[in-house]
Amino acid sequence: MDSFEGIFEFVAVAESGGFSSAAKVLNCSTSHISRQVARLEQRLGCSLFARTTRQINLTENGTFYYQQSKQLITGLQQANEQLAQQQFNLSGTLRVSAAGGFAENYIAPALMEFAKLHPELSIDIDFNSRMVNFVEDGIDFAIRYGELNDSNLIARKLVSRSMMAVASPAYLKEYGTPTHPLQLKQHNCVITNNDNWVFQIDDTKHTIKVKGNWRSNNANVVVSACAAGLGIAYMPQRTFDSAISERTLIPVLAPFWSSGATSWIVYQNRQFQPLRTRLAIEFLLKYFEHY
To answer: Please, which domain of life does this record's source organism belong to (predicted)?
Structure first.
């Protein structure tokens, strides 16, 4: 166990940028920090820091050892929290950003079940499709759909949903039923936040740019507009379950529907997450495991 001595002090120096500042973080003397790091370097047989009169920097070996040590400490912190959670209920506020019919009809009920398990936890869901700043907005994680572009965030796949194109009987009677995705260029389309629709044509994905005079980022409004005869809509299949069963909407272009509509849990790339965030994410992944 002697090999673990000095690791906390070493990580504190690496993250705070100096021995004095690390001593303040760990509430101990600077000489204690210095001795522990020196002993660690002696045991490892290499220098972890390059020291000058003005600053201290990690060496190449130090950078590697910091990355491994940080994972070790993070794992220990999480283990401590997991044990503590067995004795205490989750508390605080879980803040979630979500958007769309899937979030309203499926994510919200799932988080209601999570809330029942942790009655002392507050849950705040912001139904907004805007890009959020996780730090400034205090968001623990977001539910997003489709292609993700921000590489600074971690995305975990929640569900993949088959797409479906639909139109109302009245619209099809007046304008005809399309038999190929390319024919959508001659049709009015009810658009969400994406006017580039992906279809499977001859085992290859093709993107069709559509146009229309009705656009909304609310899936329920798109369904209503489509049922009112304003055009053809293309969204995840389950969005249209009620309308299809009531025959207010009719499926079209079935052979060409794409199966690549993916919803993601997206969160900030950081070493240590609050326990409430980690447990909520794992709960949702388990909840939708057989969606």
So the answer is: Bacteria
